[in-house]
Amino acid sequence: MNVRGVTACLLAVAATVAGCAIGPTGVIDGGEPAVGFQPSVRLYFVSGARLRAVSRPGPLPSLKETLNLLVDGPSTAERRQGLSTDLSPEEGTPDQVTADAARVRISLAVPPVARPRPSPEPRVPPLWLGQLTCTAANALAARANIDPDAVTVVIRRGEAQRFGSFRCSEFPRAQE
């Protein structure tokens, strides 16, 4: 071995022994442990002429409870962000909610005074139907681990009036 090789080896050993000039430290607190997935419920409210999702942390409520949260409307903080709701007592409130693998059926309670519906039905469904559709589809998708746009939501009022079958992708949504 030549002098340069021996010198390089001695320098490497000296650096290892010296710890590269890094001194010892005391115990360093790493903060709170990682928590991983936090369950939340996703509700759809109106922002301008589009739907916008909001997530509220907490355990996943049932589908019916999720829709009841939607009917309660945006929180004060959400209203300050410009969110509102197109759901109203005149439209009826979710009375019965059932679901299977990729379909949710919502039956609205008949309101005390039902408004007459214009005929023919408009091409674009009203946003209140989108609020129900997207909220219900996301609630089922979270439980079934499927794409929310694969969920069909059937909405009717009582036994007499069927609004139709919808998918969340049919409604205009704000960027999330």
What would you say this structure looks like, in words?
By secondary structure, the protein is of the alpha+beta class. The chain has one domain (40-170). The protein contains 4 helices and 6 strands, in the order αββααββαββ. It has helices at residues 3-18, 63-72, 76-80, 127-144, and strands at 40-47, 50-57, 94-99, 103-108, 152-157, 161-166. The strands form 2 sheets. It has a 4-stranded mixed beta sheet with strand order 3-4-5-6, with helices on one face. A hairpin with a 2-residue loop joins strand 1 and strand 2. The chain starts with a helix and ends in a 10-residue tail after the last strand. The model has no long low-confidence stretch (mean pLDDT 82).
